Amino acid sequence: MQQTIQKREMLNYINVFRGLAILLIVVGHTMQMGNPDSWINNIAFEIFTGGTALFIFISGFLFQHLSDRYEYKTYLKKKWTNVILPYIITALPGIILCFTMPIAYGNPFDGLNPLAQIGIFLTTGRVQNVPTWYIPMICIFFLLADIFLILEKKKILYKFLPLLFLITLLIPRMTLEPENVLGLSYSAKYLEYIKYVLNGFVHFASMYILGMYFSAYKDKITVCYNKRWLLISLMLLTSAIDIYLLHNFGISNGTISKIFLTLIVLGYLKHYDEPIKNCKWFNCSMDMIAKYSFSIFFVHWYIFFAFNQLFNTPKVLPVNSPEEFSAAIFIATTRFIAVTGISLGILVGLKKLLVKFQVQNTRSIIGV
């Protein structure tokens, strides 16, 4: 009985990790800079992007951590209520933008039957709200939950990790923007977006199972801290290799360095868990961000788009001179703070409004 209680307790270091992961995702969208194929662009891409890997690791960790109360049908019902429903509801602003501003917002399916477009949007997630391609992808993990736990009980699952890491290395993430599918038929475009989701599942399966592994063997997290300098060296080395390959050959796989970053952050947060708890302002701030992390994930792209439209700012800030570099740093930092702060402010306000109207489960509407 004691083991069950311990397994279901809130882990503060994972809660802080969740807050940091969503901040890294927002950073990845708001702080891109540099001209295409420039060193600045490639370095910024390597440093700021890739937060999805950390988010998926946490998903796997929490799935295993809470698996003591797992029942497949109940699990899927909860995922429908707490993940898919808020995904559909928060997709509405993006769907409206796809219909009213198809060129500016980047809707490659403009002209197709509206109902067909909505079906495409919701099953791919990439068009109406770019980051939410994650939801169709993570749904595959949800559906495979039974298989994961059966393989874990048979002590087989984690033996697949070396193979899964090899797959992550050999199958990098696809690049998919509206301009990549110009000239294709609607069905061919849809197929590309479905391939993007499936590619994400195959590429990130290692991170999900790795999260499960460290949840099942929490004592191994100490090893991450003890070997931190080795992990830091490997992260810097793989980052440097990725930047070089991206700059010279257009090949990129930033997830490799993010694997090491994940282990480094996990090790540090677990090791300094008590000092972090005692630092009230930081711990409370991260708890607040973690609590709203999924909601921030759902809405921040809209604020990012609005910021760019309002200030006529490109997604990737150009850098042609030292002066432009300074300006890009200032704009990117301002944009990150604005997008994060406004997203959080809107969500806090919406939650209070829904509670005021006596909505019982606000999580099923806005994700929190």
Could you explain the architecture of this structure?
With 368 residues, this protein is mainly alpha-helical. It has 20 helices and no strands. The chain has helices spanning 2-7, 12-30, 39-48, 51-65, 72-90, 92-100, 102-105, 114-124, 134-143, 145-153, 161-170, 186-216, 221-226, 228-249, 255-271, 273-278, 280-291, 293-310, 322-356, 363-366. Helix 4 crosses helix 12 (186-216).
Quick overview:
With 368 residues, the chain is mainly alpha-helical. The chain is built from 20 helices and no strands.
Q: Descriptors for this entry?
A:
disordered N terminus, mainly alpha, 368 residues, 20 helices, single chain, 74% helix
Write the layout of secondary structure elements.
Layout lengths: L1 H6 L4 H19 L8 H10 L2 H15 L6 H19 L1 H9 L1 H4 L8 H11 L9 H10 L1 H9 L7 H10 L15 H31 L4 H6 L1 H22 L5 H17 L1 H6 L1 H12 L1 H18 L11 H35 L6 H4 L2
Helix pairs in contact: 2-4, 2-15, 2-17, 2-18, 2-19, 3-14, 4-12, 4-15, 9-12, 11-12, 14-15, 18-19
The SSE order reads HHHHHHHHHHHHHHHHHHHH
What is the count of helical runs? 20
**Which segments are poorly predicted (pLDDT under 50) over 5 or more consecutive residues?**
1-7
Global mean pLDDT: 93
Instruction: Please summarize the sheet with the most strands.
Output: none
- What's the shape? globular
